[in-house]
Amino acid sequence: MSVNISPESFSPPFHFKGVRFFPAADLRAVELAESFEVRDDDVFVSAYAKSGTTWVQQIVSLLSTEGDLSEVNKVPIFVRVPWFETMDMSGTGEPLPKILKDAPSPRLMKTHLPYRLLPKDAREGKGKIIYCARNVKDVVVSWHKMREGFKFIPSGTFDENFEEFINPEQAAFGFWWDVVPEYWRHKDDNNVLFLKFEDLKREDLRGNVVKIADFLGRTLSDQRIDEVVANCTFSAMKDNDATNFSRDEAFKDQRKDGFEFMRKGKVGDWKNSLSPEQSKILDDINREKMAGVDLSFEFE
């Protein structure tokens, strides 16, 4: 599959049903999401931006090929697990839901859509939804760093991007405190698996890979599982041209010099960027917006 990525490939930010979308999301694709016909073996890898999407994409992609690395290490991850609410970058210029309509099964798709904007079929139980959440302090820092690195994403100073993030009307891909709790409320749905970035990073990566495999109905040998885990560590993905956009030639003209898409992948790195005042603001919003929500995160 050839990929054509140019400044014209991306639309400017836009609003849809109260949610602000950033490049490379495409309005036509977002409009088609609701009516997209979901198959039983479809898999949606969902997350708020910069919350572990690429990580789970890699795990799901490897599990879908029974741990076969030959294709996974050659084909870019955005081709193996395309971003659902974008336009096709193979040259057609068509919205992805239209292209994916006739794609062979199993269809693996990434999305940053809030739960309420997912396809109606998925919300009614068809397909599989794997959601990965990350603590909000690391998210806001990582989102700013990515905006600094990609030319096609509008960016301001860290303080400006922080203010935008905590504004429900300006936050990219929805207000974090609306989006994450909404997915959490569906964590017990039969077709939803809710994961945390911090658990993947600091707890038991292998155990979580097995959990994802079980959820997808995939049975792999212990050896194959070990191979999947070895190729899904942060260091392995950072060194892999097929998962690290900093190395992918398709994005060469769209990234700034020295940009690292896979930067640190640490829990608690927010301490190097957030001021004490900004950290307190996030604590205060958390206290208000997460009251009554039995979801907690590790921040360091």
UniProtKB/TrEMBL annotation:
Biological process according to GO: sulfation
Keyword Transferase: yes
EC code: 2.8.2.-
Domain Sulfotransferase: 40-293
GO cellular component, one term: cytoplasm
The organism of origin for this protein: Branchiostoma floridae (Florida lancelet)
Gene: LOC118426807
EC main group: transferase
Alphabetized PANTHER family for the sequence: SULFOTRANSFERASE SULT
A Gene Ontology molecular function term of the record: sulfotransferase activity
Protein name: Sulfotransferase
Keywords: Transferase
Taxonomic placement: Eukaryota, Metazoa, Chordata, Cephalochordata, Leptocardii
